[in-house]
Input
Amino acid sequence: MTIIHNRPLDDIAETAPTLGGNAFTRAFSGGSLWRLIGMLVLILLLGFLTIYPLAMLLYGSLHSTPPGMAGEFNLNGYRSIMTTQNLIVLANTVGISLAKTIPSLTIAVFLAWIVARTDTPFRGALEVLITLPFFIPPILTAMAWGMLANPQVGVINMVWRWATGATDPLVNIYSYGGVIWHMCQYSIPFLFLFMVDAFRAMDPSLEESSRMCGASRWTTFRKITLLLMLPVLTSSFMLSFIKGIETFESALFFGLPAGIKVITTDIYESINHRATPDYQYATSLSFAIMGLMFLLVIWQWWMLRGKSFQTVTGKGFRPSVMELGPWRWVTFAICLMFFFITVVLPIGQLMLGSFFRFFGFYTYDMLTLEHYRAVFANSEFWRAVRNTMMLGLLGATATMALGAIVAYISVRTRWRGRSLIDGMAWLPWMMPGMVLGVGFLWAFAMLPGPIPIYGTVWALLLAYIALGTPVSVRVMTGAYHQLSYDLEECSRVHGASWFQTMWRIMVALAWPAFAVGWVLTFFGIMRELSASILLYSVGSETLAVVLMKLWANGNAEQVSVIGLMMMLLVIVFRWVQLSFIKSRISKL
Amino acid sequence: MASVTLENVSRMYGAVTAVDNVNLKIKSGEFVTLLGPSGCGKTTTLRMVAGLEKNTGGRISIGDNVVSDADKGYFVPSERRRLGMVFQSYAIWPHMTVFDNVAYPLRIRRRPDTEIRDRVMNALRLVEMDQYAERPSPALSGGQQQRVAIARALVFEPEVLLLDEPLSNLDARLRTQMGDDFRALQQRLKITALYVTHDQAEAMALSDRVVVMHGGRILQVGAPEEIYRRPENRQVAAFFGTPNLLNATVKDCRPNGGQYYKLSVEGQGWAGDCHAATEMPKGADVTVMVRPENLHVRNAGEVNGDLSWSGEVSQAIFRGSHRSIMVKTPAQTLHVEASSLSHVDIGRPVTVAAPVEAAWAVRN
Ligand SMILES: Nc1ncnc2c1ncn2[C@@H]1O[C@H](COP(=O)(O)OP(=O)(O)OP(=O)(O)O)[C@@H](O)[C@H]1O
Ligand SMILES: [Mg+2]
Output
């Protein structure tokens, strides 16, 4: 006899449950058909934005004539880029990028440390000031510095000559130094933005325990702080280096006049400055630079593999702040000086330039408002304003919407094909604007006749969306990672469908990040020059393009007026972003 | 309120089996707890019932309706299962007020505003949170968030309430109090509840039945006292508290007239009687479990229990509510929980005794 108790399944058979629902609800219980259609549309869209121009780039590099003309396939393009001269171009590109990354990183670390970890006064305001240059279109500061440090009529050199009686200029912006100097002004705020939160979020107990073990402040900084920051520093370095290789404006304004060529300007020149544009050369070179970028990205990935950012977490403590005593006014002054050099000086120059009849002749009787009148009477200017605004609003919205969807699918679902769309959205990361521009040039020209995108603003819009997508995906990925799955699942369990959950929970919670990303993308579009200058045509100019044309005609005075206006726009937007979005986020 | 039935339910993650052939029937109005060490598949089981995870094998039904059948490829998504759930993190939506959080399930179901107001306020009153209705939800303490989460889960009278370690984020005192409150509420409203925890005390205090899981399988299902006093095997026995587990051999086995068998066992340097669930052949190796709180320390030689060991005190630790005494015997060191008033000297020879009902034998 055995006594059975606690049978695991005591009475399951007593009521046999029945299958509920009908055939229809059963077939659609996973919503798989709609999901399939949605994914397909997304893949086609991303394919058109990223794979298609890439494929056309390859096609173009093997094709002997410009887009849309009959020709033959050959390797002449690749043969023509294998020259010693191009070796120098390559060395220039890599060298300049390295030469700007190292000092930029050092200064950015120092500034981030000042703002995040010391008791320097007005740190909050300083942070806003230090990051402001990042939002100013590089073309504006490039033009301003072209006037400020012009060897003949630049204000700096005029003051120098007047003060010392020397005849030689103090600085010449048209040089290696000039290119690097201008790039640094953008790298520093960019790296600062990238790193400052990591500095702020570092758990102070990690440092404090080192102090308790008898290490001095300096030893602690070297052995703990810096090592903990190493992953962030490495990735900052790589990012800045890659960005440096993509940079166009600095080399265009200060390198070309001095005969210093980098890859992006070489591509530009071969299309825009030769008697007959050499498209095959340009596309081959574009493909070559993409190969270089690909290697760099692989290297970056390899360097950062397995490195965890977990030591730097973001919750629950205020980092200890170092008390600097009287030195805190020194650090304050350093931060302020950075702002002065990178923002106040260029703005001052633009003002100066806009009010005097001729650039370089700053005397009382030369004061005038004629340039303002000329600009406001210029219909091309107004058209460019309209285009830029339209492209900015539409482009930023579309880019962020695409990024939000792609990020959601790759982070939050397990749908088949999610890594594919994630990968496709990331592709433009490896393509400098110049290269993507060349790719789209071919892509639009090869479209069948009934789709007249080529030469319209829509061409620019598509290029901007493609360029902005990697960043928008990143921003939204970060936002989704911070929202726990529970918030979403809880809504599902309590009766909300997938769409209701998306709208009421995810959109409602992720929109601050969306807004931040939107503003970033908008600024990105405002400053975009390299793709625009290849894809614009009469009627679809952006402000940056109009500035370029005026500059090329030697009209520095009207450039100053338009530049000043753009500067104002940037500052207003940034102010709105800071005061509006920040206050909304802190409410959550 | 409805019953929940799991038949041969499994869940694989690639080659890993997180839940392995689980069979369980939860009756209407019953409070069942899933208990087990970290990673044993409790959360996965709960999430399969919720429809947040698809079972790769078996069938799940709520009430009379099948909600998921892996073989037929049938799956009802979460939102159509009519469940209430309390998450470990509470999942209080930070962009809504307390009221909006609780109203959410009703708004999704498009109920009229007056009904929403009444039912939300009722639910909030139930958890004593009605005065906080208009608070933005981030401005709540952990305990308050937990109550809001419960109110939200109850507001639309779900078929079943699912809870995943809802008390683990609270401090010890609040945990006990909230647990007792919730149990009272559950009994009053006759809610069917499936509750996940890794805290044994919580599981025993709250549940009608406890399901002990390990490695994705169910080890034992039973009332808390049943599981605590009469585990089916050594693993379950070891899971609760720190029992003394002694190896022994069966000398004799006979029915004790009631539900159980009475065994005479012999270990290294000791012998005595104990109970067991099943008949055991003579000479079988068994593990005898004696809980520390059921052992008594007596003067050496003074034997009046059914089981006794002689040894000497090796350690005594004052723990406030009781005194932990370690007694070194030829078999092994025994852990005894004695009254904190009792006084023992280290090194003193003693006899440790236990009544026959306190000793439970399981097959090795
Ligand atoms: N998405 C997943 N992919 C792969 N394995 C998983 C996944 N989710 C859970 N597992 C595995 O399934 C097993 C059971 O996990 P589950 O979360 O159910 O454990 P648990 O009992 O709730 O543990 P805890 O008490 O720590 O919450 C674990 O071994 C876990 O590693
Ligand atoms: Mg769990």
